[in-house]
Amino acid sequence: MILYVIRRINRNEGNKSSPEIILLLHGEPSWSYLYRHFIPKLKKYRVIIVDLIGFGKSDKPANKNDYTYQRHVSWIREFIENLNLNNITLFCQDLGSLVGYGKISKGFIQWLDFASQQTTTDVGRVIKSGVIRDMKQEEIDAYNTPFPNEQYQYITINEDKPHEIVEHLIKDNPLILARL
């Protein structure tokens, strides 16, 4: 069995003695860098920011079949259990919501459609297109850092199976689409 590692951003933020934990799960195509401005506002809590497998500073499996909904859920569950995290407030978006809550948004389906048409992904450009303020070049570059070439971009483009995660979720719980 191959073990992949979920890596937190280099630090465990906020009040490490707080009994309340805020767990931040990013979406596609971003990584935990997305939440860097949240930290100062949440300093009274213990804040843990996770890079999902395939994103950011976490492992990026070369085998495309490793990227399934159930595996993402299992990896996060193991991460939470290994750190013995309790009393968690979960804050997440699109893929993070799917993994954390088992809910899917229309926006995430739109992302999958967009991603399935890409042969490469400029993550910084994608993020910039959805941000209402001006972004510095260093920020755009930072979003691209974990995805230096196509080998690392599979999770953000997934052209072979763009709706694989959705199909796994629906198979497990067909009522989810009714919530859209």
UniProtKB/TrEMBL annotation:
Q: Which keywords does this chain's UniProt record carry?
A: Hydrolase
Q: Which domain of life is it from?
A: Eukaryota
Per UniProt, what is one GO molecular function of this protein? epoxide hydrolase activity
Q: Does the keyword Protein biosynthesis apply?
A: no
List the InterPro entries hit by this protein, alphabetically.
Answer: AB_hydrolase_1, AB_hydrolase_fold, Haloalkane_dehalogenase
Read off the PANTHER family from this record: AB HYDROLASE-1 DOMAIN-CONTAINING PROTEIN, HYDROLASE-RELATED
User: What protein am I looking at?
Assistant: AB hydrolase-1 domain-containing protein
Species of origin? Adineta steineri
